[in-house]
Amino acid sequence: MPYSRELLVVLFAYALGSFPTGYYLLRLRTGQDIRRLGSGTAGSRNVARTMGLAAAAITLVGDAAKGALAAGAAVLLGLESWAVPMAMAAVVAGHIWPAQLRFHGGKGLATVMGAVLVFDYRLVLVAFALAAVTLGLARQITVGGLVAVLLTPLVAALIGHTRTDVIGLSLLATLVLFAQKEDVRSIVEKARTPSGE
Asked: How many of the other CB atoms lie within 10 Å of CB of 175?
């Protein structure tokens, strides 16, 4: 079957992404569902609010490792060029919309970071620099992270990545933007509100 390996890796990436570290960490420790606490997501920020910084660090590393493993598997197996960004998109989609958790997971930033780190570490270095500059200007971590993710496809194009890579990275950015839509809406509303009101 043509592209059977590629399809299997993409499916593996989605399945891997479908196990949000924060959800299972809290479930094993307390039996609670983290999606019913704090902000209602399974990401490291909500874990920090509910279980502390140590648990948040474990969650961050675990979620990033999923992205790294998915991208690494696609690269090491020498798959067709389109399959690498597709595997990256699949692992992030799995994290955001895990089937076994009724499609309610995390927001995907850590998983994107892990995947892109394996794909091309230079993009992560530039993303961190962009996030730091934006954080200094906007004083909001979420804004910094979103700007970094959204500009990553442009940076990839500028340093010579293929059109397929840029399209795949654009898909990643779109997934994260959609998952963060409530944060984006809040940022836009704050920007529209004159200071002092």
From this structure: 23
